[in-house]
Amino acid sequence: MNYLPNILFAIILILGIGYFAKNVKKLIRNIKLGHDVDASDNTSERWKNMINIALGQSKMVRRPVSGFLHLIVYVGFIIINIEVLEIIIDGLFGTHRIGLSVLPTSVYGFLIGTFEVLACLVFVSVIIFWVRRNIIKVARFWKSEMTSWPKNDGNFILYFEMVLMMLFLIMNATDTSFQASNSGNIISQFIAPLFSGVSETTLYVIERSAWWIHIIGILIFLNYLYFFKHLHIILAFQNVYFVKVKPQGQFDNLE
Question: How far is CA 192 from the centre of its chain?
Fold first, then answer.
């Protein structure tokens, strides 16, 4: 029975990643339907574009407010999910915060502390995005092409990110051993007092529940991306690197 959670975790992980891999194969199949294109030229320019556009989000920064918030959400969300590696190891082998065991406390604390700050920034940025979309009603979100599903899809992504960031912070706040280490709990230390009157058993249940829902939510989010416009979260770097770098309008000679 002690191995039941590990087996259950492995099944969920295999199903989540397996379904995503199946859809990625479809994506690759569709791409291969096109003609082969030589993209080995202008390597330095391609790397420069990838750093500026995909990583630096230069196109989004043309709108200062939304661009800055978008940069926080995109970079923050990607970096925070590095912690998924620890969750996967813990889930498969039955360990608890394996990073705290193999890394110096100061190093682990720095990493988790960074993740917590980013999680808080992402959460605040997503709230602002939601307010701009649904309360302030910025004009471009209410055009004819942004009704029905496109509008709902944008909100669903925001809800996903809000919940995932909140679960990450709650998971840390209710982990008594992590809070006792007093290293890396930069944000969660202020959430922990909300659970001060709760028994150790209940704290454990809350922490484990947040842990499970967090990783399951990430797998659902991963598979959700394939079907909708936010697939660019995963494909942005490849798309920007392989985009045509010749001047627009320039034709190649026909064979």
Answer: 24
3-state secondary structure of 211: helix
Contacts for 208-214: CB closer than 8 Å, 24+ residues apart: 210/167, 210/168, 210/170, 210/171, 210/174, 211/87, 211/171, 213/167, 214/87, 214/164, 214/167, 214/168, 214/171
Calpha distance 46→50 (Å, rounded):
6
| Average pLDDT over every residue of 179-193 | 92
Which of these, 160, 57, 181, lies nearest to 110 by C-alpha position?
A: 181
Full 3-state SS string of 35-92: CCCCCCCCHHHHHHHHHHHHHCCCCHHHCHHHHHHHHHHHHHHHHHHHHHHHHHHHHH
- What's the CA gap between 69 and 126, in Å, rounded? 8
pLDDT per residue as tens digits for the range 45-91:
888 877 777 666 666 556 667 777 777 887 787 788 888 999 999 99
Residue environment code for 211-249, b if the CB has 16+ CB neighbours within 10 A, otherwise e: bbbbbebbbebbbbbbeeebeeebebeeebbeeeeeeee
d(CA 168, CA 90): 15
**Cα angle at 112 between 108 and 116, to 5 degrees?**
165
Determine contact, residues 76/119, Cβ cutoff 8 Å.
Answer: yes
Question: What's the rounded Cα separation, in Å, for the pair 225 and 164?
Answer: 15
Largest Cα–Cα distance of the chain, in whole Å?
A: 77
Q: pTM score > 0.90 for this model?
A: no
* CA nearest neighbour of 171 among 228, 115, 230, 249: 115
**pLDDT attached to residue 187:** 95
Rounded to 5°, angle at Cα 18 from 17 and 21:
85
